[in-house]
Design goal:
Blueprint lengths: L2 E9 L5 E8 L4 E5 L6 H16 L7 H11 L6 H21 L4 H5 L7 E9 L2 H14 L3 E6 L20 E2 L5 E3 L2 H19 L4 E5 L6 H11 L6 E3 L9 H8 L4 E3 L6 H9 L5 E2 L8 H14 L3 E4 L7 H13 L3 E5 L5 H6 L5 E3 L2 E3 L12 H4 L7 E2 L2 E3 L5 E2 L2
Parallel strand pairs: 4-5, 4-13, 5-8, 7-17, 8-9, 9-10, 10-11, 11-12, 12-13
Antiparallel strand pairs: 1-2, 2-3, 4-15, 6-16, 14-15, 17-18
Helix pairs in contact: 1-3, 2-3, 3-10, 5-6, 6-7, 7-8, 9-10
The chain binds 2-keto-3-deoxygluconate (KDG) and magnesium ion.
2-keto-3-deoxygluconate binds next to loops.
Length: about 400
């Protein structure tokens, strides 16, 4: 089998997605997600200008060799643009291999380790009562795990809180939106939120919370400690993780479980966090961390230290990433949970998929490959529009972490 053609499809059914399609001489094709929120065209150019010309004529079954070629062959290693491009190729090649074998991808990875993939939903409210209503909504849908975020008194816009029906932080505009952040009111308010959630819903629900990189290590330690009575499933990204050592300080003060890594793109970003058991869940996922070939190395390292997976699954990762991740999640021995934000109807129509939700679990389906396709004609109806994640500043105007 040979690769005869490959190209990117950029589409925007509500938000921007970059998809790679790899076509072979035997008519089998594979699909990979290459979306990097706010930097979509950089990955598209990396693939189109620098990667695709090197793929033509290669044997698509040689997934490991192609991965190594793209990683080592560029000389410049790692980084989100490079690793998202490699991930797209890798996902598409695994799709081809599984389709050629006439098997769902999880079978090639080693078969299922579980009957369903537990997923968590996002309950977002402008205040505590609204957040509680959203928790009730997702619990009624059958979710066993729910992430809860609220607005903070005195702050106009806060990460994770929706102004309309669907939460979409990447605003369509030529430059990022500016938002305001203040740590003190947040640290006071977050425990009140979880006290209210436990009061109303009891203990038979996994609760998660995303701090979105906004605290210093000692502030994160304080928050983890103040959330202990509410027994969170995890506290996510409490502080930026470039300095992996910083998590030692948080760990010394709290037993609230920690989840980190949605912005990571290689095993080196989380090696110390894992080897020193400074986290409980690793959030890296396929599209930003080099695809299945690389994520399974990360998971294997994590397994040695009883760190479990908690793959990123926000809506800026396309259904292609979600579908492939569900095969990975079905197989990976040290699975923890999968994020599931749910795409809008337009996105689901552009990306027909085999996965389905039932009673708090997602199932990858039995279609050969990863089970997600792209309707290229429909995709053309939604042209790319510039959109960026917001930035955050403190009250004195200093730049902060969004
Ligand atoms: O889903 C999460 O946990 C996130 O933090 C979502 C991110 O803000 C989003 O994916 C950025 O593109
Ligand atoms: Mg997050």
């Amino acid at each position: 089998m040979r690769i005869t053609n490959a190209y990117c499809i950029v589409t925007s059914p509500g938000r921007n997605f970059v998809t790679l399609k790899i076509v072979t001489d035997e008519g089998v094709y594979g699909i990979g997600d290459a979306t990097l929120n706010g930097r979509e065209l950089a990955v598209e150019s990396y693939l189109t200008d620098h990667v695709i010309p090197c793929l033509i004529g290669r044997d698509p079954h040689r997934i490991e060799d192609i991965w190594q070629y793209l990683y080592k062959g560029a000389y410049w290693r790692r980084g989100p643009v490079t690793m998202s491009a490699i991930a797209a190729v890798d996902m598409a090649l695994w799709d081809i291999k599984a389709k050629a074998a006439n098997m769902p991808l999880y079978q090639l990875l080693g078969g299922k380790s579980r009957d369903g993939v537990m997923v968590y939903a996002h309950a977002n409210g402008r205040d505590i009562p609204e957040a509680l209503d959203r928790v009730a909504h997702y619990q009624a849908l059958g979710f066993k795990a729910i992430r809860v975020q609220t607005g903070v008194p005195g702050l106009d816009k806060v990460y994770g809180v929706q102004s309309g029906e669907a939460y979409e932080p990447a605003i369509r505009a030529p430059v990022p939106e500016e938002t305001l952040w203040a740590t003190e009111p947040y640290l006071d308010y977050a425990p009140k939120l979880f006290e209210a959630v436990r009061d109303r819903f009891g203990w038979d629900l996994h609760l998660l919370h995303d701090v979105h990189h906004r605290l210093t290590p000692i502030e994160a330690a304080r928050l983890g400690k103040s959330l202990e009575p509410y027994r969170l499933f995890w506290m996510e990204d409490p502080t930026p993780a470039e300095n992996q050592e910083a998590f030692r300080l948080i760990r010394q003060h709290t037993v609230t479980p920690l989840a980190v890594g949605e912005v990571f793109n290689s095993i080196h970003d989380c090696r110390e966090l894992i080897q020193n058991q400074l986290i409980d869940y690793i959030r890296a996922t396929l599209v930003h961390a080099g695809g299945i070939t690389h994520l399974r190395r990360i998971a294997a390292l994590a397994e040695l230290y009883q760190v479990r997976t908690g793959c990123h699954g926000a809506t800026d990762l396309s259904p292609v990433c979600m579908g492939a991740a569900l095969h990975f999640d079905s197989w990976v021995p040290n699975f923890g949970v999968q994020e599931y934000m749910m795409h809008n109807a337009e996105t689901d129509a552009v990306f027909p998929h085999a996965y389905s939700f039932k009673d708090g679990y997602l199932h990858p389906g039995e279609a050969p490959g990863h089970g997600v396709d792209i309707d290229e004609e429909l995709a053309k109806k939604y042209p790319y529009t510039q959109a960026y994640l917001p930035v955050a500043r403190l009250r004195d105007g200093s730049m902060w972490n969004w």
